[in-house]
Write a structure and sequence with these properties.
alpha/beta; single chain; Leucine-rich repeat, LRR (right-handed beta-alpha superhelix); Toxin ADP-ribosyltransferase, Chain A, domain 1; elongated; ten-stranded parallel β-sheet; 552 residues
Amino acid sequence: MGGSNRKPKPQTYQTFFEYLLSPNGIVEIPIVTLEQAVTPLIPLLPNIRTYVRLAKDKCNNPSDGLTPNESASIMLYTMGWQPYDQCLYMVLNRTIRSKNCAKLQPWLLYLKLFLTALTRLPSNQMTVYRENNFDLGQQYELNEKFVWWDFALCSVSSEQISLAETKTRFSINCRSVKNIHKHTYFPSDSSVLILPGTKFQVVERIQQTDDINLITLQEIQSSFLLTTQTFHKKSQTLFQKYCLPKSRSNRLFSMRKPSSASVTFRQVTLRELINAFDDDWINLSEQNINDRDMKFVVQKTIANKRYKRVRLANNHITAQGALTLGKSLQNNNTLQFLDLRNNSIGDLGMQILLPQIIRSNLKILKLESNGITSEGAQYLAELVRCNRTLTELYLSQNRLGDVGVELLTNALNEDKRAHADHDNKDVAPKPSTLQHLYLGDNDITDIGIGYLANMLKSNRTLTWLWLSNNQITNPGLQILSSVLINDNFTLQWLFLNSNKGIDDGSLDTFASLFKYNLSLKTIYLYDCNLSDAVKQTLHRLTRYKRDFDLEV
């Protein structure tokens, strides 16, 4: 809820709003559905479609004569979600304060719908309140006149907006405020909204004994947006009329810690999202879920043992969230698929989480891009050694290195499994169930390939090995090829793409592999360092291999 401390010159917002109110802005564009209006905003607000759906579900029969899309556009503006600085009203007001017309472009469809809705609401004369955790007392001189340019959310009750660290409290006597409480998500929300371009005068400024600045403002001129001809007038005349030398941008949208209301709203939105999934799987990817959310999410998705497949990819889960998740997996025999890609679980999270997964019925575990190093690989090794059900393990885009690969391959080496001195007396080792192993982009060199080749001599369950984008060269490829020709007859899919160390010198190795190996069905070699001539030769060598796919 904050802006800039600077007092902008009269023309600093002029070009910005001239563009907004020009034919190139919102004047001539059509009014569309809210879903269509937010489509250009998805790169800025990746999760916005979730909140659009929640808003539209609440706006089937809106008040004040608004259409469902108009009402939902207001409701969407009032919603707060995590990260708090990336919800719509924060980003929109930040865009306005940037005064950059290019940044306004993706907002035009939404602003057309939003402003149409606001101008259809009656203007109200009332006293409204706003609090701020910045000390703004010195920025508002007695009798000073200025213009606010943000879409300023306020409340009709000062009791509902108290902040723990309040430094400034505004009491604002308005004559054109928009009462939007019938278009907010929570019925108890008493929000009102002051339009950009509203002019005020400071009529009182008091320093209270509790170090809170009490500033009383009087509206002296309504926003130009309320003029019925606004969208068709020349913007220059509007700004000459409304921009004064002492116009300023306000600091009403400063960052603050989530209030209890925002936490409650967060749980409501997550609950509604979860309830939308009726089957035995649920997708909560890209929902900005963090450790604070995990207790609620786990309770609703995993602890109740309802879902077989849970996706939590592309969130903000760390080792702390993994602790919450691990507890929920105790005695859970339902969950079979868990997607944790692109989080920040790390080695500590592996230490916390994997002992619980060992005793689960999980079949597919996705851990790509979680900052796992060779330290975490020791826990992964224990998982693949002792788990009875795991068939697919996704570990690409981590930092396992050759040391991590050695730990994993020792656990998958059937000869070593049979002769190991097992410390875990409760879980006796059996042949591995793992069929698919993804190790792309893990800084694996030919040394790591040696460990993998040694494992493949005895392993008879692995059918899929993903090694793309590593540091494999021709000698490493030769080691792997020798084992696949002489010792391993079960691997069917091999992915070596994007290994720049594999070049034309590997032609003879591939020729032997294609001729003598009978189990491989697919090999990926694209984006290696192979010339067009060698690629053509490889295609000729595999032309008559049945049920074989070469991607080069």
